[in-house]
Amino acid sequence: MLFPHDLPDADVLHLPGWLAAAEADQLLYSLQAEVPWETHRIRMFGNWVDSPRLSCWIGDPQARYRYSGAEFVPRPWPPVLQAMRGRLEAEGHGRFNSVLLNRYRGGGDYMGWHSDDEPELGPALLVHYSVDPDDPYTMLLIQDGVARERSDGVLGIAALLPPPYRLAVVGRIVPRIVRDTLYDFIARRRRRFPGAAWCAMPPEGVDLTDRVLG
After folding, report:
1. What pTM value is reported for the model?
2. What number is the average pLDDT over the span 5-23?
3. HSE of 61, CA atoms in CB hemisphere, 13 A
4. Reduced to 3 DSSP states, what percent helix, strand and coil does the chain have, rounded to the nearest 5?
5. Mean pLDDT of the chain
6. CB 16 within 8 A of CB 3
7. Which end of the chain is more exposed for a tag (fewer CB within 10 A), N or C?
């Protein structure tokens, strides 16, 4: 059973005992021995410095990203981690195309406060769900590892909104092929209906806090 942790600005689910103690110990030993640990070089305050820990970026070939001025190319999945990935996905915990491993050797290794907001993570997510990042024909709503696109994405978002917008979910009674055809028609012509100015970003300084879901 998953147990949620009530933390500010974070969603954390804890699954106690997912690995037996002996299995968890063996996984730790295998990762220490099999993973090509390295010290990542990152740019901070205009200088290149060593990260205060050992790390390894592992993933599918397309899961590249940039962080602190450095580009990270994923290492191949080691067998032990590939097995864990398959087990997690088989149990319905989502789909995974990459993982960042960090190894803290002692009290001198640490992780500083930061935010994972690299722009490359967006295109990588699109590729993971088979959407062309150079021609994103659809919005994606990802819930519990499941991606909903086109009209399903719109109706999924509507379900998260307060009334009266939530009433839009009645559109689910319309066959999906009809909804998606209408979605594609509007999406490809969205600039023509209200005009290009309506699609532009708001002036700097405009507060959009009340328009963000969270």
Report:
1. 0.56
2. 83
3. 0
4. 35, 20, 45
5. 80
6. yes
7. C
